């Protein structure tokens, strides 16, 4: 089998490659679903990992992105992205098999050992990442980027739902019926996930690659080019601030639900599935809107919703009736699914659009390296803050008294992880304001986009009802900010007159 890039790809080759990339996505999603997220955190909790260790493992995938410098060097040296991706992917998935086998036979291994082995999983995955992105940029027609990747995302998320739910039932069933030790089930999940990851690499090995253009010059000088690009630099500032805000709290959602709410794996996975379903139902619409109008506007609509979800986490557990807390969790997960679908898709697309074709690997690597630092630091700070706030709390109540009846309403009750959720919402608000300065190619004025999207929504009311509500939420959010700014300006202007 020849892995050499081809100067020109036929339409048949491109169509076959696009199908193989979807197959790669399904296999990769199986690996991710079984060896990360809820199942990884649950296994760490079972092995008595502390908050700092959980934060460390949450930041490790992004920290290893600094090694994407190696990816840039390999592309410049060999100009064969497929070979780099396939070999790196194979080396990245093997550690998952090792962890599964060690746990299965040794029953329990130190958390430090898992961190050490997973480092190589994330290291080689980071080397493969930029090459894969640049490969896809040249392979997939630019006008179809949003539609194709939203379609691929919907397929992979649907598969994640089925597989995640099945795995959760297996975990809870074996635990409740004491068929085998719970840790053995997680070991098997890692083995199956590792095999699925290797299958993903095999699919990519058969995917055609167009010839890419390679940058020349000193590698450090080349890596400075994205930083000299003023518009791309603004995107880096926004992206870094955004991932920092989210990663302060995101790694601890599952820990909070397990430790503080006492929810089973099936419940946690079920809530995650609700989030994914909402993401699946909206990701294609976000893709069409991003292609037709603006990725920035999609992010501008979704970001306020995600902030509200972060604030909503502060009220989980505040009700005495359990079903009300479950209902609130469901609403939060649904909102996070809708907002994440638009934000993640648009961030990927705008990064690809702002990257020159002949320097896409360099631009994407620089972005990943810089954001990796903030993504790695954030969960470590979050873990430290969770321990710090574990002995501190803040309660704000409203009390009503009358001769016949009295009632205490809990307005706010912060403790440990809830402090993180509120802090993350504040930081996300600051980060969202940084997006305004980014200029997107083909960007349409916001008022035009809103008008055209509302027209589309009115003609497709049933399909786009939820999106219409989000647009109104975005307008209200921006108007509130504008009124607040104008009010402050008025007060400052009137102050000298009043003092005289």
Automatic annotation (TrEMBL):
One of its GO terms (molecular function) is transmembrane transporter activity. This is MFS transporter. The chain crosses the membrane at residues 21-46, 52-75, 84-107, 113-135, 155-171, 183-204, 235-258, 264-286, 298-318, 324-347, 368-386, 419-438. Pfam families: MFS_1. Keywords: Membrane, Transmembrane, Transmembrane helix. It comes from the Bacteria. Coiled coil: none annotated.
